[in-house]
Amino acid sequence: MIKAFFHNVPELAAQAAGQIVLLGVLVSAAIGAVLGVVGLGFVLFSGPLIRLFIPEPEVAAFGVRSLWIISLAFPFHAAGMCFEGAFNGAGDTWAPARLNFLCLWLCQIPMAWLLSQSFGTVGAVISVPAAFALLTLLSWALFRRGRWKLQKV
Length: 153
Prior knowledge:
With 153 residues, the protein is mainly α. It has one domain (13-150). It is 84% helix and 0% strand. It contains seven helices and no strands. It starts with a helix and ends in an 8-residue tail after the last helix.
């Protein structure tokens, strides 16, 4: 939505663009809240949901823990995607590419290994929401900095 708007109206003033993106962030926050409710549903019904697909009790127990951990990160995922969409829509494709490389490759993978050394397989699962939280925070910081407003589409 945001990407299409910026692509079709390149002469939009930077201030108005910032307000529109903030509106998009608010909409994304609402979607994040919905995803939070969905995540809560996954948490509450994780046992029966996992057992639909996995009959082995040991594997199902790991699946339930993993679903809990991943589901609680849905709002972070929604907010991070909104910020990255704003950068892309403004014509700044390098910021999201660098953020994804930093957070999802250079941080998440080593973090998964390190956490798995202390917490086992659950540690690797913990790295997923941690990486998305980092991605969201760094995206927010870059958005606040405002360099994306200087991009020419």
